[in-house]
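FORM 7B: Structural annotation worksheet

SECTION A. Query
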Amino acid sequence: MKRLAKRIVVVAIICLLLNGISGAWTQGRAASAPDLAAYAGADREQRLVAGAKVEGKVVWYTSLAGSSYKELAKGFESKYPGVKIEPYRGTSSDIMTKISAEAQAKQIIADTIETTLPTLRFFRENKLLIAFTSPHLAKYPPATKESAARGLVYWAIDRETYMGVGYNTNLIPAALVPKNYADLLKPQLKGKIGFVSNETGTRTIGGILKVKGEEFIRKLKAQEITLHAISGRAMADLVISGEVALSPTIFRDHALEAKAKGAPIDWAAMEIVPASGVSKPATSRSRVVFPQPEAPTTAVMVPVATSRSTPCSTSWSPNDLASPVTSSACSAPVSLTVPLPWSTA
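SECTION B. Predicted structure
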């Protein structure tokens, strides 16, 4: 059975500790951000929404691409009239850099963010997260929540997607569509494969290493891989245009969304699909926390692969597909197998 990994969305609250914790608007009296984040009274949402309406908008940094984040913003604005969403879309690296710069300047602009798990861990290690609660969290299995003290959490998984091979259906005939990583070595695919060179590409390399080993990476290099310093969404656009015929660094939702609109793209899962992590947090500048969707309905425990920074003896990245392999210490994420609490079938 193929093991599919999740691109994970999590929830967290960013604290402006470097600037001091500002007073939170709660029915005419100030409350500290940690107290407000931990508040579990029956009027919790009423207080949060009232404070958000005073400010008038929520500034949202997100790693989501395509139309999905725009639809989420519309849904939020419909649910909470009077509170506008002001989105900033960037990669997780972009968001890490932006939030870090804002924290250093003691003026975090973001109210809520959606970015990867490694980025969230960086924020937590640098004491930029406030533990929080939400009545919606009761619907989530324990394994989906990053626990903090006093029954609070730093984040909770609430979305998943998958990384695999996206290909242009006009350029790649059915007989050449890879069914596993080994098929990437087919002679007919030489010069037709592209990788993104960001963390999505690194996670894909981690998945290939886990399944096929280092020697396979050396063989793959001979396929004349092209590297692109762009997002996974932008790589999907290159596949659609035909500039890149095939890429193992395509997110399933990007490919299938475009396919549904008539674009010449399709998607295939390999024997393991490396994971990215994403987060949806709110800062103390905002008085509103994004409501969480229903928990997944399936509950079958299956082993899947996720990405986690782990020490190892050799560092590999997409750059190793286009240049001599001379790296040593492994600072890049590699793929590990862990259980997640719902089925990928």
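SECTION C. Observations
Residues 7-160+276-283 form a domain with the D-Maltodextrin-Binding Protein; domain 2 fold (CATH 3.40.190). The mean pLDDT is 74.

SECTION D. Sign-off
Analyst initials: ____
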